[in-house]
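User: I'm writing a tutorial on reading structure tokens. Could you give me a worked example: one chain, its sequence, then its tokens, then a sentence or two explaining what the tokens reveal?
Assistant: Sure. Here is the example chain.
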Amino acid sequence: MNTKEEVLKLIEDLPENVTIDDIMKELYVKSKIDKGIQELNSGKVVSHEKVKEKLGKWLN
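And here are its predicted structure tokens:
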């Protein structure tokens, strides 16, 4: 499915009383999820241990 078809499907699945803001929010969320999946698939990840280490420095 190409991007245009995905967007149309996303909009069609929303309720009839959807607002433009609702559509924009759904598209934004989908975009961020797709980007995250793409980064995960390309190996751009941070291990759980690294995150704990970095957060530990900020929180202590």
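What the tokens reveal: The mean pLDDT is 93. Residues 3-59 form one domain.
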